[in-house]
Structures
1.
Amino acid sequence: MFYLVGLGLGDAKDITEKGLEIVKRAKRVYLEAYTSILTVGKEALEQHYGREIILADRDMVEQGSDELMAEADKEDIAFLVVGDPLGATTHTDLILRAVEKGIQYRIVHNASIMSAIGCCGLQLYNFGEAVSIVFWTDTWRPDSFYDKIAVNVERGMHTLCLLDIKVKEQSLENLMRGRKIYEPPRFMSASLAAEQLLEIVEKKTAEDSTQKLALTAETLCVGLARVGAEDQKVVTATLKQMASVDLGGPLHSLVIPGHMHPMEKDMLRLFALDDSVKSFLL
Amino acid sequence: MFYLVGLGLGDAKDITEKGLEIVKRAKRVYLEAYTSILTVGKEALEQHYGREIILADRDMVEQGSDELMAEADKEDIAFLVVGDPLGATTHTDLILRAVEKGIQYRIVHNASIMSAIGCCGLQLYNFGEAVSIVFWTDTWRPDSFYDKIAVNVERGMHTLCLLDIKVKEQSLENLMRGRKIYEPPRFMSASLAAEQLLEIVEKKTAEDSTQKLALTAETLCVGLARVGAEDQKVVTATLKQMASVDLGGPLHSLVIPGHMHPMEKDMLRLFALDDSVKSFLL
């Protein structure tokens, strides 16, 4: 059996009892380590689970599924994923490959940022399409996520912005020279996401200052860091303020609220950066 | 501390290690038992956790929060919720009341149907607004959920339909006579949800047969039962077929796919009711 086991969002103890039993008895245990991270590393997980864990990078998962699933027709193999195995990052491709190989699979669900985001107080059924905000480079500055947020805002829906993660990336130079030297991992902060959104708003205003934009510098947003961990942080602020809020270590998310019910406003007020934000939420 | 602890979706072993530790040490343990259920009952949970559990019905949660939170400023109180405490059913009102009373709270997240629905293979970031489908009566047949599904379909987004649950409901007669006699619990099946949707489609067609509707009897949908449990069942079929598919015991959910990527089609094909459904998914 090939088990896809969700680890939840905080630390080693966010695994479910069912998941832990599988980890303890599995022949091999892999950890998907390139689309999300816990607040603790591989070593803490190994110590807590009492098992050796094999790090699975993108190459191994996307191309090396033979290795990953070897003997899974006879033995239990556990593939650990931060959050839910089919949440913000989906591993349906692994399921399809397992089925093709005639290997049975099972999913052990856990908390995903896609639902745990409810901790800010905005109701999940009022969220529209989620978006991904990617790191801009000097030459690549996509802004299609703005349009999706705008559609949600116009329909009164909230938007969860998943923020970019760069793990095991090569610099252009190292890539071209075929050198397997990797850059340090980078995790987009809520402040950088707000900054990029503000830049899009400024650009659009410069192009046509008469248009009414779905977002402005004064739009409220919610920054969240380390959801589910002991030191979780949630801050409600304007986009302009958020661009200089430091929420600490990764992972961060950003939410753009749409139309809010009174109870949703009451919740966001709990996390207001200052009194001016509170007054927006009355 | 007032802990809101998610139980996940399957059985007693879907609690997280963190959640279980809290249940074991809490002074009192409540189970929210009116918006969702596990495949096992209170007794199985009590036996597995080794703790007495107090059933919290709607009245106790909505009006009796004094009782619920008594001593939570000095002791640990655990409030267990199937799924995630802020998932399909949100308990933000309890959080607001705790804060008002000066009681600290913490959320222990877990799998919610809002994210575990990814197990059908449709990607979570392609879902639009979720809808609730309620039991119709002879005189009350709301259909606003149809319009929300139609908006999602037109935008190419998938829709998760949460299906109605009636627990501890009184008949009109018993309600009027003030008799505290409750009807047996009822859980809407995917087939009944499909039936109600078909009736709306038929009504709209009868009103104006020239209009192009977002849904028809031949629209594909996905019925899911007992997501996360050992005997989970997923079936892809047309709405017309789904109306007579028996997925077994509760809880059920229904998904209406929007535009599908090839890999999403490949996944739905795994659950096809018959070859004709498979051919729709090529």
2.
Amino acid sequence: MNYIKIFAPATVANVSCGFDSLGFAVDAVGDEMTFTKTAEKGVKITNITGADLTYNIDENAASAVIKKILNTANADFGIALTIHKGFSPGSGLGSSAASAAGAAFGTNQLLGDMYSNLELTKFAMFGEKVACGSEIADNVAAAIFGGFILVRSYHPLEIIKLPVPSELRVVAIHPQISIKTKDARAVLPAEIALKDAVTQWANVGGLISGLYTDNYNLISNSLVDIVAEPARKSLIPFFDDIKNSATKAGALGAGISGSGPTVFALCEGDVVAKAVYKSIEESYKNTGINFEMFISKVNHKGIKIIK
Amino acid sequence: MNYIKIFAPATVANVSCGFDSLGFAVDAVGDEMTFTKTAEKGVKITNITGADLTYNIDENAASAVIKKILNTANADFGIALTIHKGFSPGSGLGSSAASAAGAAFGTNQLLGDMYSNLELTKFAMFGEKVACGSEIADNVAAAIFGGFILVRSYHPLEIIKLPVPSELRVVAIHPQISIKTKDARAVLPAEIALKDAVTQWANVGGLISGLYTDNYNLISNSLVDIVAEPARKSLIPFFDDIKNSATKAGALGAGISGSGPTVFALCEGDVVAKAVYKSIEESYKNTGINFEMFISKVNHKGIKIIK
């Protein structure tokens, strides 16, 4: 194989109760990346469209990952990379994760599938470090494994792929404001009340149980975040309005995607998802803040080969 | 129905990572209770064996629950109760919970099965309040529902019954020392680090995922408690020795049952369970502290009708 074109999905991390532990991949939104083998070793970025990202090999999440894998594998070839960003960096939808995960996946294909998904996740985490300063696993694991994932442990890294009820849909709104991950981290408390922690892990248990049993009611009851959301929601203008609009229209629940500003809502079925989309759109269009929205299935397969 | 004899199981609450949220019922150990309809209204305790418990109707967890249910149901009969305790109060194995849950179940049978398991759990929680001062659900729900349970929420009360892998066994050791629930609560921190909370809820997610998928390795990896166990283990003499003996002999994990002093170990299969039993016994017999032990399957059915 000398060439591959892939789709690397956007991802929603945290998923209300599962702060720093849960994530899922989206079907409708993501990046396209191409990887072409070159006789010359090393990585070249030949084109980036859709967003203004660095061409510096060691600072771009995708090329940094490719370089690391090619070195680790002692590859006798290089890679020429193109990236078409299908969604905005800084949206809270795992932009750097899509680039890093896509890079790991594409490179592995050109290497003849040397590495497991867990190993690819580790390589992609290096890309997250390049982009954001820390080796966060939830977005990259969701992009690589697809579906819902649980980061059970970092040391050693253990990723659990969870089932996805077939009617689960996601509606997302991206208010066009900028939140730095660093700022979103800074508002979080260093400590939380033990009783709040208990509430949160009972909801994690409920959400995961709901995913295994297709129990939408239980998923809905469990989509509650009393830890990160109360601290972060003030960073997102009209967050409560979005959430109320979503739940009023029948969403199972809504919360902050990653560190925001995107807000996601989970829904059972297309009809409800469309109603939730309209309800959120209606509530946000008079705020004076530009926004983008999408409806999507949950992506079960992770990164997809286009060509 | 004018008479019923039941078995109300001992239960293990918390289950390492699931502090105040998870519990499971035990097959081999529990109380026997009989309920006889009387023409005279109200409750009488006619006999208590196996432990020194109060005959005061409003202070005994079982009779207090029976009284409450009979009043709520506006029953036209009374109940004469006998209790044979099969295990010690104060062991950390849900002694008051077995009494309270058994009382709720037995009374409901004589009422012609008026109430759901969830309603019976609420009645039994009143018994916990009578016995311990707070309406804790994890032990009583495990006794009533059987198997593994998750207390997803208290307000409203939502109990999720989780699956139990068929080879799951429990080994328990009860050092004959006394720990008051109040003291075990007092050593807990009011606040915990957010990063520790994340670790804990990722393990709750892993444990529940392992139960759904019969993944003993994942169950083992997830049986970690970095919140309550570090604070409480000093209350249990030779706790680390017990735990090391259990894991060395192949246990999936070990932890404090409820607020102790009983320590439980989960194992895959009878052969490992027997080896774990012997290993713990060997390590504890020279401590100078008296102890009791048992091996059991996880009880899938909750309270059982004997006659």
